[in-house]
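Appendix B, Record 12. Input sequence as logged:
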Amino acid sequence: MNNDYSVFHLITNASFVVQFVMFILLVASVISWTFIFYKRKEFKQAFQVTDEFEQEFWSGQDLTVLYKQIADSEFEAEGIEKIFLDGYKEFSRMQQKGANSVIQVESAQRVMNIAMVRELDRLEETLPFLATVGSTSPYVGLFGTVWGIMNSFRALGDVKQATLSLVAPGIAEALIATAIGLFAAIPAVVSYNFFTTRLDKLAGRYELFVDEFVVLLQRQAHS
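Logged structural output:
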């Protein structure tokens, strides 16, 4: 009788269903960590761009100069810069058409709100996957555990005397599925909560900027 109870041995000798469950969970975990590192970098950049832009915006620089500076940049505008570019471009377009001041500001505000929603949607991508992994992985692991334990008890029907050594390997390999499920779920849940909090904070800053920028456009439209 093989008494090797190492994790590797238990995994390689598990039933096909339990191995398949473990494989699915490991794949989900790898994808989750890939998204986590990517999103961490993306949110860090979004906050950095927001901080730098707000510093320039409130430095008293002429809006037309700031618009040209961002529009002519070699880097594609994202986040708050994209909201500003779309809003000021629409405001200038309505001015050239000779629209009244109310229409100028309302049109710019509407365009900025659309740009803001698009930028937030872009940042929100892959977050539903983390939520799904965090909520379903424990149950998928539990399925593997139940299946493994069920097989262990079915094997007892073929012997006259049940001993712990007969069922221990099956139960151990089954519990590994639960452990892997938790390993996949916990980082996904923690990261999802962290990123959604950051997203809400960024959305608040975007909304505040749009409101403040609208006030400036109203003054400029009436000047």
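The mean pLDDT is 87.
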